[in-house]
């Protein structure tokens, strides 16, 4: 079976140095693979140019948004670019993360041994501060369900590597409705076609910035879309797993909090909070 062509997708904003680090890590892998690094710069200031990344010849597809569009639209753009280059698999790697030296070896193994699944999840190695549950992982490799194992039972860590086949991605894109708290919709849509294969292998290295969103205490919802999203996510999970007490309890909690979120948002818009 031939090796796959891999597209590594990175939506970037104001992270020139870490982009260079990620591209070097892809160029210095332990094993050989046909790969393309797709970088969409979301209107960094100062601007980041293609030459700044130090790309290997023929290994970079670069585009710059004329204005800041947010990570979701930017990831969709990167995905369309990758698919136009006839990739077999895509991996989503943020601009502040990098990959391990054996990442391509992992990709090849998944393609050879579990190609029919089409969605592969692996672990992250964290440096610095993390969020609770980052190290959680099932004891055995195998096929798992996004609704049951990631959302309801929460058997997986807070950040994972997703590698997905082009075939599995047919018609699945990130939501463009709102800028915050909407990454989950992509995975929920993907999960409708089946589970993912989880491997207890570390393929990504992550670190959370002290002033970034991940470690920051969650404050009031910044807009109406986010207020609605707090309810929409548990509602969709409950509808797909209607016999789960945990799913319905989570939805009930968010429904109780929803009026308060709206009130706080209105007060902020009026300049009273």
UniProtKB/TrEMBL annotation:
Keyword Signal in record: no
GO molecular function: transferase activity
Keywords of this entry: Transferase
Residue stretches making up the Glycosyltransferase 2-like domain: 8-130
Short name of one Pfam family: Glycos_transf_2
InterPro entries the UniProt entry points to: Glyco_trans_2-like, Nucleotide-diphossugar_trans
Transmembrane segments: none
Record's protein name: Glycosyltransferase involved in cell wall biosynthesis
Native organism: Tahibacter aquaticus
């Amino acid at each position: 079976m031939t090796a796959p062509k891999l597209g590594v997708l990175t939506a970037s904003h104001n992270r020139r140095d870490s982009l260079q680090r990620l591209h070097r890590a892809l160029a210095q892998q332990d094993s050989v693979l046909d790969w393309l690094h797709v970088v969409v710069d979301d209107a960094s200031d100062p601007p980041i140019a293609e030459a700044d990344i130090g790309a290997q010849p023929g290994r970079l597809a670069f585009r710059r948004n004329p204005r800041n569009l947010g990570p979701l639209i930017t990831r969709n753009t990167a995905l369309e670019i990758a698919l136009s280059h006839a990739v077999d698999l895509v991996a989503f790697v943020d601009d502040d993360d990098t990959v391990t030296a054996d990442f391509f070896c992992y990709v090849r193994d998944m393609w050879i041994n579990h190609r029919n699944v089409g969605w592969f999840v692996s672990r992250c190695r964290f440096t610095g501060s993390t969020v609770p549950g980052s190290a959680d992982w099932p004891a055995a490799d195998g096929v798992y369900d996004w609704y049951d194992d990631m959302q309801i039972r929460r058997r997986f860590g807070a950040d994972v590597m997703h590698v997905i086949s082009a075939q599995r991605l047919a018609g699945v894109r990130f939501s463009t409705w709102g800028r915050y708290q909407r990454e989950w919709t992509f995975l929920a849509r993907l999960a409708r076609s089946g589970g993912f294969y989880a491997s207890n292998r570390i393929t990504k290295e992550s670190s959370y910035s002290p002033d970034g969103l991940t470690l920051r205490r969650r404050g009031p919802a910044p807009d109406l879309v986010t207020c609605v999203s707090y309810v929409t996510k548990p509602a969709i999970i409950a509808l797909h797993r209607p016999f789960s007490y945990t799913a319905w309890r989570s939805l009930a909690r968010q429904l109780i909090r929803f009026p308060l979120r709206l009130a706080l948002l209105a007060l902020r818009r009026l300049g009273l909070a």
